[in-house]
Amino acid sequence: MTATVTTPRAHRVTEAKLLIAGGFGAGKTTMVGSASEVTPFTTEEIMTSAGVGVDDTRNVPGKTTTTSCLDYGRVSIDRDLILHLFGTPGQTRFWYMWDELIRGCVGAVVLVDTRRLADCFAAIDFFEHRRLPYLVAINCFDGVQYHDAKDVREALAVTGDVPVVSLDARSGASSRHVLISLVEHVLSLRGVVAAGTPLAGSTA
Ligand SMILES: Nc1nc2c(ncn2[C@@H]2O[C@H](COP(=O)(O)OP(=O)(O)OP(=O)(O)O)[C@@H](O)[C@H]2O)c(=O)[nH]1
Ligand SMILES: [Mg+2]
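# guanosine-5'-triphosphate complex -> structure
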């Protein structure tokens, strides 16, 4: 984890930085906003006609803005663990930001819209290459899971140790559940807990 501070009561608080990544319009900003207990910091910009032919908005027809830099939100899982969430920009022309955003990060969520599966390949390659633990989260737009987790795992060719879960990014409870799964995954990879062990004290 990135930092450990000790309060006067000797109460240890662990803070961890996590990335919320994925393709254009996969729901990254929505997830950071729904999970955050503070008003999220966003860098949304209006999509102009300059993006026509560059941004594929066919499956996100109502989308009028896009993240130009990053999203930030914060979640307390319990009194001992605070997660700092950084949402990445989705458009490829902003991907130079990712090298900065990954600094000090302990794990990542790769959000997937299964109608545009290939859009998340670059995020998966990026984290695999940098050996950053990640999980795949299928965003069920309109509550519909278009493909099951097994099919998505196969299509993405992610190894069996990478968790593949589903969520509704608009739901804070659903988003926090995925974040807890990611922390559990990171801890199991570090040998802190056995794989599949629920995070002690997680109530989100
Ligand atoms: N129905 C439904 N709509 C969603 C869900 N998640 C996101 N949306 C909508 O999908 C659109 C894109 O969501 P964003 O959160 O902006 O996606 P993003 O990944 O941050 O987009 P970029 O930053 O442009 O890459 C928005 O209009 C959201 O309201 C979901 O789970 N269900
Ligand atoms: Mg965004």
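# post-check
The chain has five helices and nine strands.
The domain at 3-189 is CATH 3.40.50.300 (Rossmann fold).
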